[in-house]
Amino acid sequence: MRWVVMGLVVALVAGCGTDPATVTTDVGADVGALIELPEPRRVGDHSLEEALAARRSIRDFSAEPLDDAELSQLLWATQGVTAERGGRTAPSAGALYPLEIYLVTAQGWFHYAPNGHHLVEVGVGDVRPQLAAAALGQEAVAAAAAVFVVTAVYERTAVKYGARAERYVHLEAGHAAQNLLLQAVADGLAAVPIGAFVDADVQSVLTLPADHEPLYLVPVGYPQTDGAP
Ligand SMILES: Cc1cc2nc3c(=O)[nH]c(=O)nc-3n(C[C@H](O)[C@H](O)[C@H](O)COP(=O)(O)O)c2cc1C
After folding, report:
1. Residue 55: phi, psi to the nearest 5?
2. Residue whose CA lies nearest to ligand 1 atom number 25
3. pLDDT in tens, 79-112
4. pLDDT digit string, tens, across residues 191-212
5. How far does residue 120's CA lie from ligand 1's centre (Å)?
6. What number of CA atoms fall less than 13 Å from residue 61's CA on the CB side?
7. Ligand 1 residue neighbourhood (C-beta within 6 Å)
8. Residues with Cβ < 8 Å from 153, sequence gap 6 or more?
9. Dist. CA 99–CA 212, nearest whole Å
10. Given CA atoms 160, 165, 171, 173 in this order, what sign does their dihedral have?
11. Are 99 and 111 a contacting pair, CB within 8 Å?
């Protein structure tokens, strides 16, 4: 039902041109501008093998922001739609897609809509310091240009798989996060997967709906190099 509503919103906004518009969806926290993302590329300069060999957790970032094309590519790698019937970059048990991705930048925080490949603004302002505090003071969260927050709605998978759903949802979060980490490497970016945080504090900082339960924070940015800001 949610994506039906979102689809209607997208159609309405698309019909009015590309200017950001204020939209309301039935996701409690999603009330804000709809931000179109550039089309992600399907070819790159690096092989999968090169990305696998180079991947390392990097926690020191430069202050350089990520542009829309970079954010678009990273979001697509995480949960982008790649098939007409809704298949995504990461597999999903029963094709039930329990994951919801949020993006946190210096400007604000946003909810990713895979169908339509756009963002919906959730809040304005830099909450990275508060998010870092929720992650037990981990500096990487405050310093990265962007923090990708993988959350999950367990009930979507539990409807079909019952108690097995918890396992499946966690496996899926791993698939999505690994896609994100490898895309970051392929794009010359630094990233680290973070599991140490207080769930309730992350939910509170990002005003997440109660059933969007945070599983992973992935700060991404340009690596800090000697002499860089
Ligand atoms: C489930 C999980 C949780 C993690 N949580 C954190 C974390 O909270 N903070 C952090 O700095 N790194 C975290 N890491 C990254 C690991 O420390 C890192 O993967 C490990 O040291 C191996 O280094 P590598 O990723 O460079 O191969 C986590 C990794 C995983 C898989």
Report:
1. -60, 130
2. 57
3. 999 999 999 999 999 999 999 999 999 999 999 9
4. 999 999 999 999 999 999 999 9
5. 29
6. 26
7. 56-57, 59, 138, 192-196
8. 98, 100, 211, 212, 213
9. 8
10. positive
11. no
CB within 8 A of 19, min separation 6: which ones?
A: none
Pair of tokens at residue 125: 């302002």
What tokens were used for 7? Answer: 């689809």
pTM: 0.88
Sequence-ordered list of residues with C-beta below 8 angstroms from that of 58, at least 6 positions apart, any chain: 190, 191, 192, 223
Q: Which residues contact 10 (CB under 8 A, 6 or more apart)?
A: 34, 113, 115, 116, 118
Domains for the chain: give ranges and CATH numbers: 27-221 (3.40.109.10)
Helices (H), 121-198: 128-134, 139-143, 154-161, 165-186
> Of 192, 198, 199, which is best to mutate to test ligand 1, by the most ligand atoms within 8 angstroms of its C-beta?
192
Is residue 116 within 8 Å of residue 10, measured between CB atoms?
Answer: yes
